[in-house]
Amino acid sequence: MERIYLDHAATSPMHPEVFQAMKPFFETYFGNPSSIHHFGREARRGLDEAREFIAQKINARFDEIVFTSGGTEADNLAILGYAFANNDKGNHLITTKIEHHAVLHAFQHLEKSGYSVTYLDVNEHGEISMEDLENALTDETILVSIMFGNNEVGSIQPIEEIGRVLAAHQTVFHTDAVQVFGSEQIDVNQLGVDLLAASGHKINGPNGTGFLYIRQGIHLASLQYGGEQERKRRSGTENVPAIVGMQKALELALKESERRKLLYTQFKEILLTSFEQEMINFKVNGNQEQALSHILNVSFPGLNVESILMNLDLDGVAVSSGSACTAGSIDPSHVLTSMFNDKNRSHSAVRFSFGLGNDLAQIEEAAQKVVNVMKRLESQIK
């Protein structure tokens, strides 16, 4: 049985060319990039080339890129680091109810530390209201964090418009761009963002690497202590092989981005058309006109998502739920419960996410298997 992987929003397989780009930095250029000898200089060369490449691709300066262990650390460094370093300017922060937990849990920690946080609502498409954002701003607001593209339903926020509004305010603007990095063009100056977090493993790069863009002049408190790496902003020897791999992954992703968008749009059409033709009861979550091309979130009312996931896995299709799965229970997705009053919509939601290795034949096969599972489960509850 061929297994079909449709969970690329969780993590993605490493591209073979990425693996090849990383190999020399395990075998030959293995030195510590802080060392001054030949081995260290060669490692530093790889590190500097990756930093320069990534900076250019998002229209940033070389020294505005700080490498991290992934998107979670980048989000934490941005949010906690800025709040702790700038609490003399105010103690009010703004985010949304549908952020990744790397962001939400950081804000919850700050609330326990005495900060005031406003969590913006979203509409049924997963989009914030600009009016709500403007009304939430106060003289004490020092940080606004709004994700670029949502990891569960794919909704894209009006980042450039938000940046224009915040430009006239003292607040700093952070965005979690983990799901957007490599698939959408990012220009930090055009967008007006001051802090931007990204990760390598969503774009066929290695796990355990990411970066935080920090606009020049912004001061963050360090979250870990040790050496003076990353211009004293993030201690610890840099993971040079993984960083080089992230550079290569970004290069490949940007070359393929337009082709992949068209292909993923076809994938969505195949799945949804199959559900319609087979008269499956389903509801699409999120605005597909303004959404990430690689994510499709669908609820199957009346069915249990845990049963859906288990049956699909047995049939060789790997997908995920927007909910947090624990032994014997499913907690409702905070994203879907923020979008809809109906908790059943969350309890039956499945996220299909596409990427490297998927083709039309796979999606057609997966669509039929999903239909078969849904019909089987529906017959069991009648």
From TrEMBL:
Q: Which residues form the Aminotransferase class V domain?
A: 4-364
Q: Which reaction does it catalyse?
A: (sulfur carrier)-H + L-cysteine = (sulfur carrier)-SH + L-alanine
Q: Which cofactor does it need?
A: pyridoxal 5'-phosphate
Q: What is the similarity comment for this entry?
A: Belongs to the class-V pyridoxal-phosphate-dependent aminotransferase family. NifS/IscS subfamily.
Kindly give the Pfam families that the UniProt entry links to this protein: Aminotran_5
EC numbers, comma separated: 2.8.1.7
Origin species: Salipaludibacillus neizhouensis
Task: Please state what the protein is called.
Answer: cysteine desulfurase
Q: What PROSITE patterns is this protein classified in?
A: AA_TRANSFER_CLASS_5
**InterPro entries per record:** Aminotrans_V_dom, Aminotrans_V_PyrdxlP_BS, Cysteine_dSase, PyrdxlP-dep_Trfase, PyrdxlP-dep_Trfase_major, PyrdxlP-dep_Trfase_small
